[in-house]
Structure formats: C-alpha cells, structure tokens
Amino acid sequence: MNSGVEITTTGRQALVTGGARGLGAAIVRRLARSGAAVLVADVRQEQAKELCESLLAEGLRARPVGLDVRDAEAVGELFGDLDAAGDAVDILVNCAAVDVTKSVVELTAEEITRVITTDLLGPMYLCREAFRRMADRGGGHIVNILSTAALRTWTEAGPYAAAKTGLRAFTHTLFQEARRDCPGIGVTGVVAGGMETPFIMERFPDTDTALLQSPEVVADAVMYALSVPAGSAAAELVVVPRREVSWP
After folding, report:
1. In the beta sheet, which residues pair with residue 188?
2. Residue 216 and residue 198: Cα distance in Å, rounded?
3. I need a labelling partner for 93 at 20 to 30 A (CA). Which of 42, 69, 111, 123 fits?
4. C-beta of residue 123 within 8 angstroms of C-beta of residue 170
5. What is the pLDDT of residues 183-219, one digit of tens each?
6. Which of 79, 125, 131, 160 is catalytic?
7. pLDDT tens readout for residues 99-126
8. Residue 123 pairs with which residues in a beta bridge?
C-alpha cells in the first residue's frame, strides 16, 4: 500500500524484535525501504531469514538475529556483540509479544510468566541496553508497541493487559528520563488496535477482518514517530480501526 509518511533512515541501524512476521515484519519492511539497515530479531529464525532474503533481493539491508527477548543475558550479549563490531542501534522497536486467551482461573503459572516476561520484561531489558548506549552517543529513538489493552481490559486477557499497561507506564517513565537527561533520544509508545496479523488470526480465525486494520498503517505510525523534528516529541500515538471494539 502507498504510505503518506515519507522519511529517510539512511545511515541508521534499526533493531526490531518480533520482526519475522505480522506487525514486526511490516515495520521491518518500512524501515529497510526508507534506508535503514535492519536487524530482524525473533525466535522464528526461518521466517526472519526468509524476510531478510526478500529484502536483500530488493537491494535493501536486513539480517536475522536469533533472540529470545525473555533472556536478559542474551539481550546483553547481543548488544555487546554489536558494540564489538562497531554497530550502533540507532532505532529500537519493541514489537515481540505473546498472549494466552484464558480466564484467570484457567491460567498456569508458566503461561503467566511467559506473557509477562515476553511482553513487559523483554522490552525493558532491550530498552535498558539501548537507552544507555544512545545516551552515550547523544541520540537515538525507542518505539514500544503498546495495545488498547493498556487502556481498557477485557476478559481472558489478564496477563497481556497487565504487561501492556506496565509497558505503557515504563515507556512514559523512559520518555521523561530522556527529556531530562538526553533530549536527543526519542521515546514513543504506539497504542495499536486490532490488526489483521497472525497474532489475532491464528487464535481467532473467525474474526471479522472488516473490524481490523492493516499492520502497514501501524508501521506508518512508527515511521511518523521517527519523523518528528528534534524540537518536538511524539510521546504516544494511538492507531485503531474506526470500528475498534476494544477502544475505551
């Protein structure tokens, strides 16, 4: 689809978690096509490799990175390896997420831990590593993908709502710290409504897609956040389908 957002990211390197498919892949494509070198971080290595190969065939720059965001040590090692190679992360997009559709009484401890660790702790681990390096360099941009679940809860989504609500609060805190300590760093939370991606369609195959939006629209919102001039800040953007059923 044609985008109304035009921005160049030439000369910058981006790291996108959950970048192998769905919204993450849409963001990877937009970043690569705007000139960025993109690290596609995902546990789905085969899909990440296929995406990168398709972008390389277009003459763009992208490479897969195996990463489980739940592993704080692995996150630290990744940034350490990038440091050793002289590869700075100029743009971080935390998109990796999981959900378990069960009532509170049906949830297992492992399921709760998996959702909270992936959707909340993982982004915090990545922000911690990226932010301190961006502060040393004097600039960069972090985008955390949020959800309407951070604004309104519904049944069978307890851990997911808790994680996204926590991530929204963490993102706002990081924004304030960047504004105080390093104005060159942008921090944006993107509240995304329902999208036609595997995240929804694999769990709810009968979903009326007329109620959903294209992930490309949310990818454009990410690009808009990156395009805001230095004198302004896009602390939070909300992008939902007009018929969004979970909007407050």
Report:
1. 143
2. 14
3. 111
4. yes
5. 999 999 999 988 777 777 678 688 777 888 899 999 9
6. 160
7. 999 999 999 999 999 999 999 999 999 9
8. none
Closest CA to 174 of 127, 133, 232, 119: 127
Buried b vs exposed e over 128-153: b needs ≥16 C-beta within 10 Å?
A: ebbbebbbeeeebbbbbbbbbbbbeb
Query: Binning pLDDT at 50, 70 and 90, where does residue 1 land?
Result: very low
Tokens read off for 213: 């939006």
Tokens, residue 194: 């329902």
Residue 125 annotated among the catalytic residues of the structure: no
- Give the closest residue to 126 by CA, choosing from 97, 147, 98: 97
What is each CA distance from 6 to 10, 24, 97, in whole angstroms? 12, 19, 27
pTM assigned to the model: 0.94
- Which pLDDT value is given to residue 248? 66
Rounded to an integer, what distance in angstroms lies between the CA atom of residue 224 and that of residue 217? 11
Query: If you ran DSSP here, which 8-state letter would residue 210 be given?
Result: G
Closest by CA position to 131, among listed 191, 89, 192: 89
In sequence order, which ranges of the chain are alpha helices (DSSP H)?
22-33, 45-57, 72-85, 109-116, 122-137, 158-181, 198-201, 215-227
pLDDT of residue 245: 74
